[in-house]
Each structure stands twice: as structure tokens, then as C-alpha cells.
Amino acid sequence: MKKITRYIFLLPLLVLLWGCFKDNYPGAELSPYIAIYDIRNLYKGNDVTLSVENMRGANKIAATVVSDHSGGNMPAGLLVLQDARRISALRGIAISLGNQAAQYVPGDSLVINVEGGVLKRVDGILQITGIAQNRITKVSSGNAIPVSRVTANLIQADPGKYECVLSAIVKGGFDPLPGPNDVLAGDKVLNDGFGNLTLHTEANAGFANDKAPVMANFYGIVFNTQVKDQLVPQFRVRKSADVVVLSSTIEIAPILITGFLNSPTINSVNTSDANYEYIQFMATRDIDFAVTPYSVVTTNNAGASTPTGNPVNGWATGGLRTYKFNITSGKAAKGTFFYVGGTAKLINGNGSTNISTSNWVKALNYATTDGADFGTKTGNLLANSGNAFGMAVFAGTTVTTDTRPVDVIFISNGGSLYSAGPPARGYRITNTDFYDLKNPITLEDQPYYRAGSNTSFFTYNPSGQGYFTMLSGEYSPGLGRWTKARVQNNILLTPTSTIDQIENDNAAKLK
User: Fold this and answer.
1) Coil, helix or strand for 135?
2) Structural contact between residues 260 and 461, judged by C-beta atoms closer than 8 angstroms
């Protein structure tokens, strides 16, 4: 009875509190502005008339213009804007404005009353229609526009997310490679090392007859077309200046680093890495090493590796920091794997499968023998954990402080690797799927690992477990570039593993 009386007493209090909770901010007013992110989310496949109700009390958008009709390559009559008002998510939208759209230029800050407008897809592009120019107020001009660097695979995976957003496709090249007389006009397959995207240039665009570059940064806007129920992205640059040429020459890497074993399984049979580590490569052309020699250099930057400090002579530092193999005999056919490493030629350390019948172009007992020209004998050629280690391939057998490799990778980023100087010291890189001799955004020189944007690396596998690090990807000798950048694919080996496990369909391949 006491409990019932207590509940009856509390009931009016709960009713009072409920009334308070219904209006947490008495007297507050809802913002008149809605984020483009929220506008886009209103569209579920059918036309939507925008109202104060479905826009949560708002009736305006405040956004920055990114469209530029001066180059003649924007969809006619569309004013394109973007903002990041919701959770800092950059989103764009098109306003159907007819000829008046060309009056606005990139950097204009606009407030647009969109109440009563209709949100719909027209020719695949999500846009707001029914907006008269008198509903647009220009607040300012010349505002900085954030540019989102996006890879082609992300755009393909979610075209709606990137539609009408000013984006940068970095290190883009065409497939097939453009000829000397090829121009930008038409639809071209643009590849940035992560995927393909259609670059569309109208035949009457002001830059349609500009020469198609070998490699460039492309700044433009994603517009979608619709094929049945699927959105198909199309990338359009706005003017000639949106194509920033990075290269007009093709550099084809003759040899690619495609995998390595740095730490075989440690067990009662195998207790050491010494003489069991190896590196896997792929030839992109037929190579006779007796005629065209190459060299492979590894670097181990563990704290105990001497000489310490930043590598004054780069890959040629020697000691326990860098170790060199000269490849002066043997052959490798285009598209095939070959190996460099210890003389044991076992897949996963002592007691494991013998893979000596594979193509070993250089085997050296690095635990008992110094490297060619430099490098002190070591029981641990490739580090197992901690600071960075790396490997590079060089044309010829002469490697100095200034020699640039034809391919290079690094694992981890610790240790004394780079000093900006002057003079600059470090491990030289080349143009690969991960590294760039010039910063692709600022165009500044950055010839070393850890300089500028050259900070990418692969990660360590657990030590002593017998992981082969497979670097899967797709390289096109015709284009001179990775069309699918290398990704780390960790293969856990056993003592009975076979060569097929590290040379299968998931391994790197030529296009």
C-alpha cells in the first residue's frame, strides 16, 4: 500500500518533468541554414519538394561556388556549390539556374533560399530545380576553396558522396597511353594507381585541343550519369589550368619488388634468420643479367646497426646499415618471378620446403660473407621489428650516394632515416606507386624517403611466425605505372608450404 501511495505521489512530478524535457531550449530558434549533406540525404529516389518541415526548420543553404563555366566544360545551366557544415563532411549540390549560372565564379560565397525548390536527379545529376536568381545573395567573393584529394576507387565505390565536390585526382594518367597528337577532347580512361575513372571533355571546351599529358594532377568536379539504377561517375576539369602536368616522359621499371620473407618460423628445427631471408621480384621485360646487370641493396636501421645516425651515403652507407647484392648472371622472362637472398633457398627457414628450383638469380650467405662493394656480414639482413628496413633495386652494379633506384619499398618508419640538412641525407627513392621525386601537390623536389609526402610504408608482421609479405598489385609496362597500387597481403607459411603459396593469383601481376 505504501508503494502504491508513493507511485501516485510521483506521477504528477513525472508529468511535469516530461513537459520540461519536450522543450530543452525554451525560446531558442532553429537555424535557417541546412547543410548540403542533409539536403542530399532527403533524396530517396523520388523528387522532393523542399520545405521548412523536411529541412528541420531551415530554408537556406550557405555554400561556396566551385563551378566555372569559362572553360565550356561544365554541364550547361548548373551552378555547383559545396559546404562542410555537417560533421565537417564536404558535400556538393547543383542548382539548375540556366544561363545565369555562368555569372558566378569559384570562391563566391552564396546564401540561397531553397524553400519550394524541387530536389531531383536530372540526367543522373542530383540538383535543386525551380530556384530563381532573386533568391540568391552573394555574400563575398574570392574565398579559398578546400580541394579534396580523392582516389578513383573511392569515387567509383560511392559516386553520390563525391558528386559536385571539387576534387583532385593526383598522379593521373591515361589508359591507353596518349600518342603525340592525342588531345583531351572526348571520354578518356583516367587511372591514378587506384582505379579507373572517365575524364570527360566537351568537344567545344576551350581546352579540348590541349595535348593529353602522360601524367598530371586533374582538378575537377564529379558529375554522375545514370545507367538503369546505377550511378556512373564522370570527372570534368573546368579549365586548362585544372590540368597540372607532372611528367611528359614514360619511365618503365624493369624490375618490381613483389614480396619478401624477413622472419621465418622460429621453432625447434629453425632457430635463426641467418641465410634464410629472401626477396621476391618480377621482371617487366626479358632480362639477361650477364648483359644487363642490376644490384639489390637492403637497409636495416635497428638501433644496434652501425654506423648510426642519418645515412650520410644513403644506400651506399655500408656497415650493418646497408648490404649489397650484385646480379650479373641468370635470366628472367617478362612477367615471371625471381629471387635474391640466402644460399639456403628454403621457403620458411631450416627444415622447410626447398625452393631452389625457382629462379634464384643471386644467392649469398650474408651471415658469413660481406656484401658486394659494401655491407658487413649479418645474421639479420631484414629487420624483424622496430625501426625501418627497406630494399631497393638499381640498374647496374655501381651504387653511390646519388644513385637513384628503379624500385624501392620500406617497412616501418623508425630510426635515423632522413635529414633535410643542408646537405640533405637519406635513402633515395624513385617514382613508384608510393613515392614521388616531386611532391604531387606542391611540385617541390623530395628525392628521399621521409621527405615531403614520401612517408608511406608497409607494416611489420609478427616476428618468428613465418609470414611471407606478398605485395599484390597490377603494373602496366605499357603505361610505365602501377594501375593498381601494391597492397600488403600477409601469407602465413608453414614448414611444408610450397612455392605456389607465394606465386599465386593474388600475387603482383603485369597488365
Assistant:
1) helix
2) no
Residues of the chain with pLDDT > 70, as a percent, come to: 94
Among 174, 219, 216, 217, CA closest to 198 = 174
* pLDDT on residue 6: 46
pLDDT digits (tens, 9 = 90+) for 272-286: 999 999 999 999 999
Do 437 and 505 have their domain in common?
A: yes
Name residue, grid cell 623536389.
Answer: 445
113 shares its domain with 221: no
Of residues 259, 255, 323, the one with CA closest to residue 289: 255
Which one is predicted more confidently, 30 or 218?
218
The pTM is what?
0.83
pLDDT tens, position by position, 36-77 = 999 999 999 999 999 999 999 999 999 999 999 999 999 999
Do 312 and 389 lie in a common domain?
yes
| CATH number of the domain bearing residue 437 | 2.60.40.1260
Residue 157: inside a domain:
yes
CA atoms within 13 A on the CB side of 249: 4
Rounded to 10 degrees, the C-alpha dihedral 136/140/144/149 comes to -10
Report d(CA 65, CA 106) in Å as an integer: 5
